[in-house]
Amino acid sequence: MASRSIRSAAPAPAPARPPTQIDVINLSLDDSSDLANNASLPRRSPSPQPARLETTNARFCLIDEAGSPSHTPISPPQKRPGQSSFHSFEPSRPSQPTFRPVQKVTTSNGKSDDAQDMARSSGVRHPNLGHQQAMPSSEHHIKDGHARMTSYIIESTKPVERRVLTCKDLFAGLSSKPTLADEADTMRIKFKEHSKPKSNKREDYYEARPIQTDEERVPRYRFHHVEIKKNILTPNTMLTFVPHLRDLESCEESKYNVWLQELEDIDRKSGFKPMSREEKVRVTVRSEFASTVSLYLENWLDRLRLPGCDKSTLIRHIANRAPDDAITPRQKSDILNAHRPAESSTPPEANRAVEMFTEAFHRVFYQNESSTKQIALRDVLLLDESVDSIMDTKPTAKNGSLSLNENEFEAVEFNLGTYCILGCLICFSHSCEHGEYDASNSKRSLSMLPRLSDTLRRRRRIPSDKANVANGHSPNPCKRSCYHTSTTSVVDSAQRPWTPEEHIVMRSMIVTADHSRVKTDPFCIVAHLLDRDCRDVFHEYERLGIRLPPREPVSKAPIKTVSWYDRFKKALIGDWENRTRSQEHQQRKLIEPCFHEGPCTKENCICVQYGYLCEKYCGCTVENCAYKFTGCACHSQGKTCLAKQKDRPCICVQLHRECDPDLCDTCGILERADPENAEDELIHATGCQNCSLQRGLTKALALGQSQLEGVGYGLFAAECIAQGDFIIEYVGELITHDEGVRREARRGDVFDEESNISYVFTLLENEGMWVDAAIYGNLSRYINHASEKSSGDKRGCNITPQILYVNGEYRIKFTATRDIQAGEELFFNYGENFPNLTKKVLNHKAGEMSDEAKKRTRRPNRADHKRGVARKAPKSDKKKPGKGKPASHQDLEDEDLEMYESPEFIPKLPRKRKREVQDDSEEDEYHPTATDATGSCTGSPSTTDLDFGPLHDTYIGSAASHCLW
């Protein structure tokens, strides 16, 4: 540890006797020459202090061995008092630290009431010191280390190898001399230093010499994307940097600052705590300073050689002193266990040394530093990898220890707690892209916890006709000395001893595999996993006395089939469209599986209450649930699972979902969904055709300049596409409604609102799930808008999006509505709610603001600020009525009214998902700062606006949901 180079006066040595307690520790890091010649320096006599209880005062100075390794760059020897030069070498030093026991001079209590007395006891002077006295030696170490690192980087940098020019240099004759402002073809450059007053500005003009080429200009665009194959689950984020629009004029800075304040208000009303730019600077500087100090901490502790005071001791000390709101009991326990001392006992003076070190660190790096660089010892220790990994993780298992009285089900749930929380039931992996982020911005996966013990308990409630079947299947002996065939009860003594970890694996595997769909005996599985004899596993199981609860044979009470769905015939019957909402994915209000006792009814099953079929992730079974979805019953001969087929329709196609390899066992989906067979045309020529997204084979597409004037890029077909063929999937970041609104507001241009563009697509409206393809996506983000005109018009809509349920995920699929020739541009109808619903959401909230709020934030030129999305809409075309859907009325002439007067269509505001039933007034908690509630939703875009990128407001809002089916 490095503190200010100030030492306490050395008292006269007392009669030699073993030290009993440490009361004063000098934590100064003096220069090497000073320490080496300590005996020759004059010493001041200690100031008289009142007599205290008889203990010992030990003084520890920095003593460095010659040639000892160092963790950080060592600074040059410090200058001795009265000298004008530095010593380059250090004399030899003893290997043991200087230890002088003296009479007690301070109280043994480390918590002194007098601040100045504590400063003296810690070896650090009072903060009110002169400039020369206040210069700590720690700064010399840090600055010298930085200087050495900088020098090393500069010296080790290799020069860039220049390529030899073999042709004419087009820029050889260009000069950089300023010219006059009134000359033609000039370029203005503004110079501004933000640390200087506003008057310190200058402008220079340079001659601009354009180079004319024969090549056509590349269309302008924004947000160059990163190619991804599947949607990425993204948490809610606040504004982390100031958006840069362009160089601002002096008259525009105030308007720009108001816009930044509005963006911070949006974050604040969404639950974040944004900081001002000044606060961000302070936090950044403190973080960087703490990181720098952390590089030197261990080296300082090694050089001080305090008894029992190392980095692990400091971490344990900080963990014990941390308040309850800063650390959980589990985190504290993990930190203490990770930094448990290797020795059975620590020196008696270690606690005192740690307290004095902590106090000295506080005075040096907090009290004696500027407000920008004030750091605490806890800030430095939290950067340790072992501490950071513990503090950063979410709880992965229930707290507490396993009780011996718990049954085997509870024990397995305790041992597999981490897998239950992190394990995903969709992909069976950890830290995947499935799940969602809740209101506290914590990821929630579709996992087993806390239902594992209940699931195991219910699995043993078997029908009476299967009570004598072991593990659900007839046992077959294994080839590892299986206990089924072994006649001896004596275990081979050559077997290695069992470890606690192996006991956990054995208990967990036997309990979870019992009476499951695993066809192998659990003891045989454990023998294979642990590389042991099967009879050895069985005898160890018997020796531990592990006993599963007895099975509960139950009578097989038949559950009647509902009138509109037959789970055994796998078919929908009659007016099923009026009985269920399972096919309305965008309007879905529930995505969590049900889990309850007894058969699924409207009284106890949440799926039935919302009008959905129970999925394979639900806790119910086919035997006790009349609403259990069981897949399709299509045959695998010829092409099947089509939208229109001669036989009875495929139930998966009817419910807008792809066939499930776990449920649809007759249509051949299992083989065709295998990624190994994705490009095997022979296999896909027959069998299930309802697996396009699982297959993942898109059509050949090309990016080019759109045939629409001024819209930028468009997407073209590079091969002929037949009607109904799958083209591409719309992918991006899965975000919440609130996050989408904030992103649209940040991407807006406060000075040119018509140039705003949007790449958000509503996936689940009621759940508040959007797909944002601005940064992460694929070529589908470049598909432009067109109306549904005649099929002969090549500039009309030729593809359509559809939301499908695919193996627990909701995905967006584009298919061709007609035959498309190679070279044609792809268009789809963004919907009659185009340009998007974001503006409507924001303007609706703005209209509810009080007049006082409007007056406080009045800015008449920001009428559409709350839109946050593009307004590059062409004239809205009248949408053709779909099957079973009434035609929408013509758009109202009043631009302020954006709702349509359809009797069956009332657009709902996308809202963030709420777990419990909450009052509608809670939605008003999020509303960005408004300036004017009025604003036009439609309008003719200007060429300049559309030149920023493709005509791409891919927000399929409530009205657009009519064209998805």
What does this structure look like?
The structure is a single chain. With 965 residues, this protein is α+β, with helices and mostly antiparallel strands. Among the domains are: 468-549, no CATH class; 698-899 and 928-964, SET domain (Beta-clip-like, Beta Complex), CATH 2.170.270.10. The chain has 26 helices and 24 strands. The strands form 10 sheets. The protein has a 4-stranded mixed sheet with strand order 7-17-19-18. Strands 3-5-4 form a 3-stranded antiparallel sheet, with no helix packed on it. Helix 8 runs antiparallel to helix 11 (385-392). The relative contact order is 0.08.
Pick out its properties.
965 residues; single chain; transferase; methyltransferase; 24 strands; histone H3K27 methyltransferase activity; EZH1/2-like; Beta-clip-like
How would you sum up this structure in a few lines?
Helices cover 25% and strands 9% of the residues. The protein is α+β, with helices and mostly antiparallel strands and 965 residues long.
Chart the SSEs and their pairings.
Layout: H1 32-36, E1 56-57, E2 102-103, H2 115-121, H3 131-134, H4 137-156, E3 178-179, E4 186-192, E5 201-207, E6 226-227, E7 232-233, H5 253-269, H6 277-304, H7 311-321, H8 329-338, H9 350-367, H10 377-381, H11 385-392, H12 408-415, H13 417-422, E8 436-437, E9 443-444, H14 452-459, H15 500-513, H16 522-530, H17 534-544, E10 565-566, E11 571-572, H18 606-610, E12 639-640, H19 651-654, H20 669-672, H21 681-684, E13 687-688, H22 692-695, E14 701-705, E15 713-717, E16 726-730, E17 733-736, H23 737-746, E18 760-764, E19 769-772, E20 776-777, E21 784-785, E22 799-806, E23 809-816, E24 827-828, H24 838-847, H25 851-856, H26 943-946
Parallel strand pairs: 6-20, 7-17, 12-13, 21-24
Antiparallel strand pairs: 1-2, 3-5, 4-5, 8-9, 10-11, 14-15, 16-23, 17-19, 18-19, 22-23
Helix pairs in contact: 8-11, 12-14, 12-15, 15-16, 16-17
